[in-house]
Structures are given as C-alpha cells and as structure tokens.
Amino acid sequence: SGLPESIIAAACARSGQRVLHVDSKNYYGGNWASFSFSGLLAWIKENQQKTDTSDDCEDWRKLILDSEEAISLSKKDKTIQHVEDFCYGDQDSAEDVEEAGALSKLPVFGASAAERVAQEEKSPPMESALPETESLEPGRAAGTEPASATEGNDTGITSESDGSPSTALGQSTLELGKTEAAPSETSAKETKKITYSQIVREGRRFNIDLISKLLYSRGLLIELLIKSNVSRYAEFKNATRILAFREGKVEQVPCSRADVFNSKQLTVVEKRMLMKFLTFCLDYEQHPEEYQGSESSTFAQFLRTRQLTPSLQHFILHSIAMVSETDCSTLDGLQATKKFLQCLGRYGNTPFLFPLYGQGEIPQCFCRMCAVFGGIYCLRHSVQCLVVDKESGRCKAIVDHFGQRISANYFIVEDSYLSESTCTNVCYRQISRAVLITDQSVLNTDAEQQVSILTVPPVDLGKPAVCVIELCSSTMTCMKDTYLVHLTCPSTKTAREDLEPVVQKLFNLNTGKETENEELKKPRVLWAVYFNMRDSSGVEKNSYNGLPSNVYVCSGPDSAVGNDSAVKQAETIFQEMFPTEDFCPAPPNPEDIIYDEDEIVPEESELSNSAETKPDSAEESSSGGDNAVKKEDHEE
C-alpha cells in the first residue's frame, strides 16, 4: 500500500472498478509509512532479525490446475538492509516506560492523523507539543494557522494560485526565512535536557517517515491532490527555509527578489548577478543563444561560464537547482532551477510543503478515497502466488495465505513482493537513510518552529550530495523541544558509512561534556538510526522474468526530494489499463448524486455509519462509502 499503488487503487475505484487492496504488513504505506517512536523501534527489530515467514497454507500448489502455472511471490521483504540504531542522549532506564496513554507498548501501526488525535483525546494528560496559550479553531489540526499571501506557515491545498511564473520573483512573493511564528518561549532559557525515557514516554508525538520527501507546490502530487479533492483528507505546512552548507557553516539561501536584496551575505554586485541569472532561468527556453554550445557540458560548468562568484554558484547548484555537480546536464539544471522558481509564492515563502503527521499520511489519503468508492482493504494478508493461464499467458487469479483463489482482470504488485527468480535481470540501486532526534535546530533563529531543507555537497567529486530535512514539533512529527532530522542520499556504501561524516559535521555526537565552544553551538543528537533502502525506480517491466501483460509492477521510493516519479508511474499504469477513463477526477458533489428510490431508505442508516471511513488496524477491512451505492451522473 505504498504511494503509487494507493494512487492507482483510488483511481480505479473512482472510475467504477472493483478493487481489492491487500498488504502483507500490518500497517499502511510500505516503505512510504510513518511510525510512532515505539512503532519505529519494532520496525527496527523486525528488520534486524529478518526471520523467514513460513507458509500458512502449504497445500496451495494443489489449487493450480494443469492448464495453469504459478509465479511464486517473495515470502519476506528484502528492501531494507544494514539497520543500525544508536542512543546518544542520557541513557536512563526505559525498560518499564510506556508511551503516555498507550494501552500497550506497541500501538496500532499506520494510524492516521485523525486517529492519533482521537487516541490522544482519550489518553491521560500529556505535555502538549504546542504552547499552552495557543488556541485552536474548530476543525483545525493542532499547530496550524491559516495560510495567506503574507502570513502563516500551515495551509490546506486549494486550486487557487497566489503566484505565477511571471511573479515568482516579484515583490509579492513571500520572503524566505521571515515567518510569522511567535518568538520562541525558550530562546532565553537554556536548552532542556531530553532523556531517552522522555522520548519513549512521548513516543506517540513522533511520526517518523521511512522515506523523507517534500511536496513541490506546483508538482504533480499537489496537482493530483487538488484535482481529485484528496487534499481534504490532509493538512500541510510550508517549508520555511532553504539552507546551504558552505565553508563549514550553515547559512540561509536568498531566493525571492526581496530576500536577495535584503541579504547581508551577498554584495551589491552579487545581488544583481543572481537576480539576472534567476530571471533568465524562468524563461530560458526563449533564449537558446544563452546556453548554446553548453548542452553537452554539466550544469556546474555552465555556471562557471556565467561569471558567477563561487558563493552564487554554490547556492544555485546545491540549494536552488539541487542537482549533482558531476552528473547533471546544463538543460536539466536549468529546468530544475525553473521548477524551483515557479513554485515560489504559491502557498508560502519556499517552493515546498510538508504534510502534517508525516509523508505516510499521503498514501493513506488515497487509500481512504479508494475505500469511500467501494475499495476493500486487507492488512496482514499475504499472497502466495500469481496464477497464470498457460494458453492466453495472462494472469487470472492469486492464491492468498488462506488458500483462497481470488480472480481479477488486472494485478498491480509492488516490486518487493516479486521473488528472486523473477528479478534475476534487475539491477537495483540503494538509498542511504538516517533519522536523528536532536535537541535544537541546525540554524537557530528567533523563530523556533522552522521546517528547513539543506543540501550538503560531497567532499569528494563523484560522491552524492546529502539532502537534510529538519522538522520542528509543529509538523506533528516530534515532541516539544526536539527536532526530527532526515538525511537521504544515493548509496555508495552502507547508510552509516555514507551519512555519519555529514552528521558529525552538523551535529554533536559527544555524550560527555563538551569542551570546545564550537561543539557547544552544534545541536546534540539524542537518538539516531541508519538503514539502506532499495531504490527500484526506473526499472523497466521487461526486466522482470515471465510477468504476464496484465501484471503491473510499482516501484518503491526514490532518492529525489519530490514525488513526481510515483505520480507519473501511477498515471502511466492506470492509462494502460483504462485508456478511456479520466485519471482520478474529482468526486461529485453530494447534491449532484441521484439515488434509486428503493435504495435511499433501506441504506440510509448504513451509509451514515460507513461513509468517510478508513481502515485503521490490521484486523480491519473497509469497504463502501457514501458514493459506493448505485448512482447516475446527470448533466446540468
């Protein structure tokens, strides 16, 4: 139930198809999931042990007829490797400590934002993740404020645009790094000391993503959320800062016109040079003479020909275009810069949004849409094999772990479910991931609640840059007085070998007393986990051995900042199956739905109970919704 599969399920259900969506795990999202702290500890333990799962039904092969053949599926997930976790904080005993308000040490996996809030309302009082003086309006999630063109960081997604390509650099664009957040209540106080037992006790305040991403405000995922009206199931917060790591220091990157001219980091000449170049990037296609002859060179080489200073080249390459210094072509770099600039000012002061409660909310939103339109969900439900008809060569059914045959016309399978014999010709890449819990931000300012993205360039040429995303407690992903830091890069070695040097540059890992002033300035790491994740994006279907034409493979997450590849893949697969259907259209308004007269009365009570429901545990299957009844479209 990762992001591409969930989007396809929602699109199929919306177009009137009957959808069964099963997941062998007991939580939603697969490698796109978010966990509470105790949930993540359970996930770590599971992936460190890697126990083989035995067949629940050993006689399933007897269900295969002579005219059929079976394609066995993998019995265990091999997408996660080299999992290592470390506690750097005060390691007081946490053996008998439970999450506040939890009925058990391991809460239900995959709980959505609304479900977590409902659980917290029933729980014993806990220290709030927000200042006690903050008031909440009805229907607004904790920590959110209204979005406008000039204030607020949190936003709901609408189809209205506050900016356009022509105004992306205009005065109306929000200035980077200037937020309306209240001054920090603890800025004048010493940093509070957080112990490991506190992290465990407040574990339900954490929503830790397995894969860290942001949403471009004009990206494919935002447009799909608007088009399908799935955005109503989630809330978002603006990323407030774009940071750069240069000459051993973290500094803020000026992007908008006002931010550039207010910057104290740049000279007057640099400001004019930067504005001239960014203006050119917005419509670089109209001026091919500017880059003629540089198409075959890298973007870094092209920047040197523009007579930009080294600091400007660094900002553009690593913090605006966010591309590789050695592998990115000139045209790709110009396109990436243009995309960044076009996204400025639509919903906030940077091009990026982050979903409250974590990236794992997005797949669940599409699962909810699928369920509303009649999709059936079964967690902790593994599949033994695909059943293929020898004569036609098409897949006709699956056999699940209960020994049931389930027939269907189309089958969408996530890459990790395919066996080694099917993937012998596939060459996978790997992603190095690290998740840190720290006690302060990498760049402290008067505004405490900051969401920042930082690109750390490689020390050696040819090595990948590391993307760092830092989340504050108002994103509902960590407890108060802590920050959640995600590090991501394409793998060259194990995750710890790739990322620990960057962690040591930005943070203090010393558990004892610091003696150097420089160390005192660095945020202290309280807890960390490193792991490698398989990157199956970009694998062509013909690379898999013997898959029928009606079986489609979805990839897991990639290492990019955005989600465009997942949306493209989902739309491509859907259009191959149903070329005449619209991809995820908006649901009809309730007043536009015409019900059969004999169905309105008897089903009214059922609809009131099933409408807008979403599966929230491993034992639960959800189906139906207020649009699952028979209905006819009518023209106005």
Automatic annotation (TrEMBL):
Show the GO cellular component annotation of the record.
Answer: cytosol; nucleus; Rab-protein geranylgeranyltransferase complex
For bias type Polar residues, the affected ranges are 150-170
A GO biological process held by the record: vesicle-mediated transport
Pfam families according to UniProt? RAE1_2_domI_C
Residues covered by region (Disordered): 115-170, 582-636
- Superkingdom of this protein's organism: Eukaryota
InterPro entries documented for this protein: FAD/NAD-bd_sf, GDP_dissociation_inhibitor, Rab_escort, RAE1_2_domI_C
Where is it localised? Cytoplasm, Cytosol
Q: Quote one Gene Ontology molecular function term.
A: GDP-dissociation inhibitor activity
Residue ranges annotated as compositionally biased, kind Acidic residues, are 593-606
Task: Indicate yes or no for the key word Cytoplasm.
Answer: yes
Ranges for the RAE1/2 domain? 431-559
Q: Which key words are in the record?
A: Cytoplasm, GTPase activation, Transferase
- Chief subcellular site? cytoplasm
Task: Identify the PANTHER family for this entry.
Answer: CHM, RAB ESCORT PROTEIN 1, RAB GDP-DISSOCIATION INHIBITOR
Family designation: Belongs to the Rab GDI family.
Can you say what this protein is called? RAE2 geranylgeranyltransferase
Instruction: Provide the taxonomic classification.
Output: Eukaryota, Metazoa, Chordata, Craniata, Vertebrata
